[in-house]
Specification:
This protein has 265 residues and is of the alpha/beta class. It has one domain: Rossmann fold. 48% of the residues lie in helices and 14% in strands. It contains ten helices and seven strands. Strands 3-2-1-4-5-6-7 form a seven-stranded parallel beta sheet, sandwiched between helices. β1, α1 and β2 form a beta-alpha-beta unit. α1 packs across α8, α3 runs parallel beside α4 and α4 runs parallel beside α5. The N and C termini lie far apart (51 Å).
């Protein structure tokens, strides 16, 4: 990256597609230099598209589900404290936890959705504290507020992220660092296909939110230092509100009816 101190620096994980791609796009539009990361080689092409906006971009192809992958991403910052970090990378798994899903896949989901988020936050926050400023965004989900039958580890991982982010936001009060949680609903990304959810009502749902729209809401909340934003359509916002008031049993039943494999008529 040339002239590394000339612009603010943002880090975005899971930036090769979906919400992460959208977050990197809007941060680039806002004048941030970028360090973008993803496991797949498409991240190189994505970085080139961000660079066409006139900002400096560094692509890091790394498996963030591994310790070394997160360390490689952090090393790419070259000791510079980032001004904004969007911890967004994540995967889903569809199926009956006890009877269908592979243990290795569930543990890998936890490694990426949970462990890597904690790991990266642990690396960047001391640098932000030393700088006395910074903005941190975690991508959770409206699924964080309800049990998630047939995607049990995914929903639980998003609940962890929500709780973790809220806790460290309090710890970081009065430091110049803000922590924001982005909570999308069903969004038109490849998460559903990768999770094997095409034959579920949730995966086949029409009118999913556009990832760039979700990313823009997340960006504005991040820049404003907001605690949390439920991003997307009115339907998504209603779903998040319902998640606050129903019993856990009722929420599990409601979620299970749309996430059960084969539920598409």
């Amino acid at each position: 990256m040339t002239n590394p101190e000339s612009r603010p620096l943002a880090v975005v994980t899971g930036a090769s597609s979906g919400i992460g791609y959208g977050l990197a796009s809007v941060l680039g539009e806002a004048g941030f230099d970028l360090v973008v990361a993803a496991e797949d080689p498409v991240i190189t092409a994505a970085a080139a598209s961000f660079g066409r906006r006139g900002v400096a971009v560094k692509a890091v192809q790394a498996d963030l589900a591994t310790y070394d992958g997160v360390e490689r991403l952090y090393a790419a910052l070259g000791g510079r404290a980032p001004d904004a970090v969007a911890i967004n990378a994540g995967v889903g798994i569809s199926g009956d936890f006890a009877r269908d899903n592979d243990l290795a896949a569930d543990l890998r989901l936890i490694d990426l959705n949970v462990k890597s988020a904690v790991h990266l936050a642990k690396r960047v926050l001391p640098d932000m504290l030393a700088a006395g400023a910074g903005k941190l965004l975690f991508t959770s989900s409206v699924a964080a507020r309800m049990p998630g039958p047939y995607e049990a580890t995914y929903a639980a991982s998003k609940a962890f992220i929500l709780s973790f982010a809220e806790a460290i936001r309090y710890e970081l009060r009065n430091t110049g660092i803000t922590v924001t949680v982005l909570m999308p609903g069903p969004t038109d990304t490849n998460l559903f296909a990768r999770a094997g959810m095409q034959e579920t009502k949730l995966g086949a749902m029409d009118g999913k939110d556009h990832p760039l729209d979700v990313a823009r809401e997340g960006f504005h909340a991040l820049m404003a230092g907001k605690d949390l934003v439920v991003a997307g359509s009115f339907r998504t916002k209603i779903r998040a509100t319902v998640g606050k008031v129903l019993s856990e049993t009722a929420k599990a039943k409601m979620h299970g009816q749309i996430s059960e494999p084969g539920s598409v008529a």
